[in-house]
From TrEMBL:
<keyword id="KW-0805">Transcription regulation</keyword>
<dbReference type="GO" id="GO:0005524">
    <property type="term" value="F:ATP binding"/>
</dbReference>
<dbReference type="InterPro" id="IPR002078">
    <property type="entry name" value="Sigma_54_int"/>
</dbReference>
<dbReference type="InterPro" id="IPR027417">
    <property type="entry name" value="P-loop_NTPase"/>
</dbReference>
<protein>
    <submittedName>
        <fullName>AAA domain-containing protein</fullName>
    </submittedName>
</protein>
<dbReference type="GO" id="GO:0006355">
    <property type="term" value="P:regulation of DNA-templated transcription"/>
</dbReference>
<keyword id="KW-0804">Transcription</keyword>
<keyword id="KW-0067">ATP-binding</keyword>
<dbReference type="InterPro" id="IPR025662">
    <property type="entry name" value="Sigma_54_int_dom_ATP-bd_1"/>
</dbReference>
<dbReference type="InterPro" id="IPR009057">
    <property type="entry name" value="Homeodomain-like_sf"/>
</dbReference>
<dbReference type="Pfam" id="PF00158">
    <property type="entry name" value="Sigma54_activat"/>
</dbReference>
<feature type="domain" description="Sigma-54 factor interaction">
    <location>
        <begin position="182"/>
        <end position="412"/>
    </location>
</feature>
<dbReference type="Pfam" id="PF25601">
    <property type="entry name" value="AAA_lid_14"/>
</dbReference>
<dbReference type="InterPro" id="IPR058031">
    <property type="entry name" value="AAA_lid_NorR"/>
</dbReference>
<keyword id="KW-0547">Nucleotide-binding</keyword>
<dbReference type="InterPro" id="IPR003593">
    <property type="entry name" value="AAA+_ATPase"/>
</dbReference>
<dbReference type="InterPro" id="IPR025944">
    <property type="entry name" value="Sigma_54_int_dom_CS"/>
</dbReference>
């Protein structure tokens, strides 16, 4: 029998176990400390200290048997481990094996090692117990670190969350390289810039949607300039402005003598001119069904023929298309080919109208005014707060283009450095209804605006896949399609 003394210091909240000239101090404030002493010959437990061995033994009971132990009440006996073989209580753990080796007389070096005991993560240290130089047993000091692990996990989760937040914040302050000329800091415009930045890093066909004057052409060129193709041509084709008869020959070119009136040298088409770069097919919704067939061929095969030509030419270009039309509506009316739409609608980006991002108006106005003043060489000019208010209140049917025109006019009229409301066109400054109510639209209007934006943004994110957008928005089919109809999407 081993002889050891146990003393408890209540003030210090510690237990001291002394054996011969050795003492082990356990702080019982620390609920995750445990101590086991086994004897040399039988490996039987001589002492088992744990938080609550005498009160609530949950911690050690869990460690011993993997189940809940309640020291108070009828199950107290279950925890009577003194005199039991250590291997019957703790199975197979490295720490227990080393404890037995140490008890036997081996000199084991085991200090603060991680070991799993009965499924619990612990830090263990093993000490020899000797009397007059003879090994009598061993002590295992166990620190249950599951609580610690939880704390570490919580800390790691918190750090991961902080990292995620940092990423989101960085994303929001990031001046997407090459796209800083696209002005607008509203949430929707930041989203546009983010998508445009992604588009600039791919070769996929981009479809820019949105009202006239929202900046689609501007964005198309910015995407090209921010892409790897920036040193290659950017060819802007205004499909809407081109007579149907000319469009095909302009896009694909023709061989010499292929039709009456043709240049006898033949013609290099815009697809060839854009080789290696970007072709921007603006007002794509305006092209004839015949031209749509030709275009579909290019998108499908990545090749085309010149008019009158027999050699297949590879279309080595990135296509960006834009329209202010509702192409799905056009499809329903038989004016636009569905297959072409799907070929174009690979990476759609929707440009929000200015009235749906009023928070951009002040910043945009100042930025655009600076550019105008540079262009006019009229010195720096400023917009008075009252004029700013008027600009904010107006509904901007012509979007950024209209804002640009109005500011250029104002910069020309204003003799001094300040642009006041008197320098703005009457339809804007007399916009009684607007100045009174814009920015304080009816609740219903706000709701409708938000609904429309939610649907459009989600559709853009889902590559116009209605089913996915519907699921993402957690909307029922009927409700979803009603909204599409209501907002003409
Ligand atoms: N975010 C912006 N930052 C700075 N200028 C802008 C921005 N958006 C548009 N503009 C300016 O507004 C004008 C109209 O833009 P743009 O021609 O690109 O519009 P659009 O959507 O292509 O119009 P349309 O459909 O009529 O062709 C341009 O002169 C452009 O410089």
């Amino acid at each position: 029998m081993l002889g050891f003394n146990i003393s408890v210091d209540i003030d210090d909240k510690s237990i001291t176990i002394s054996f011969g000239d050795k003492s082990f101090v356990m702080n019982y404030n620390n609920s995750i400390g445990h101590m086991v002493i086994v004897d040399r010959d039988t490996f039987k437990v001589k002492f088992y200290q744990t938080n609550g061995y005498t009160a609530r033994g949950e911690g050690i009971q869990d460690m011993l048997n993997g189940k809940v132990y309640l020291a108070k009440g009828p199950s107290v006996d279950e925890f009577n481990v003194i005199g039991k073989k250590i291997s019957s209580i703790h199975k197979g753990s490295a720490a227990i094996k080393e404890l037995c080796n140490m008890a036997k007389g081996d000199n084991v070096s085991y200090k603060d090692k991680f070991s799993e005991i009965n499924g619990f993560p612990t830090l263990c240290s093993i000490f020899p117990v000797e009397l007059k130089g003879e090994r009598k047993g061993a002590v295992l000091k166990v620190e249950d670190i599951s609580t610690l692990q939880n704390v570490i996990k919580e800390r790691n989760d918190a750090l991961a969350y902080v990292e995620e937040m940092k990423k989101i914040i960085n994303d929001n302050v990031l001046d997407y390289e090459g796209l800083s000329n696209i002005k607008g800091e509203s949430r929707v415009m930041r989203n546009v810039k983010k998508l445009a930045y992604k588009a600039s890093n791919t070769n996929s066909t981009v479809l820019l949607l949105g009202e006239s004057g929202t900046g689609k052409s501007y964005l198309a060129e910015s995407i090209h300039n921010a892409s790897q193709k920036q040193d290659k041509p950017f060819i802007h084709v205004n499909c809407g402005a081109m007579p149907e008869t000319l469009l095909e020959s302009e896009l694909f070119g023709y061989e010499k003598g292929s039709f009456t009136g043709a240049n006898h040298e033949g013609k290099v088409g815009l697809f060839e001119k854009a080789r290696g770069g970007t072709i921007f097919l603006d007002e794509i919704g305006d092209i004839s069904l015949a031209a749509q067939v030709k275009l579909l061929g290019v998108l499908q095969n990545k090749t085309f023929f010149k008019i009158g030509g027999t050699t297949e030419i590879t279309a080595d270009v990135r296509i960006i298309a834009a329209t202010n039309k509702n192409l799905e509506e056009e499809i329903r009316e038989g004016k636009f080919r569905e297959d072409l739409f799907y070929r174009l609608n690979v990476f759609p980006i929707w440009m929000p109208p200015l009235r749906e991002r009023r928070e951009d108006i002040s910043y945009l106005s100042n930025q655009i005014l600076n550019q105008i003043c540079d262009k006019l060489e009229c010195g720096e000019k400023f917009i008075s707060p009252a004029a700013q208010k008027v600009l904010f209140a107006y509904d901007w049917p012509g979007n950024v283009r209209e804002l640009e025109n109005i500011l250029e006019r104002a910069a020309n009229i204003a003799d001094g450095r300040i642009i006041t409301e008197n320098h703005l066109p009457e339809k804007i400054s007399n916009n009684e209804y607007g100045s009174r109510t814009a920015g304080w639209k009816s609740f219903q209007e706000y709701v409708e605006e938000a609904e429309k934006r939610a649907v459009l943004e989600t559709l853009a994110y889902c590559n116009n896949d209605k089913k996915k957008a519907m699921q993402a928005l957690k909307m029922g089919k009927t409700n979803f399609y009603q909204k599409l109809k209501k907002y003409g999407i």
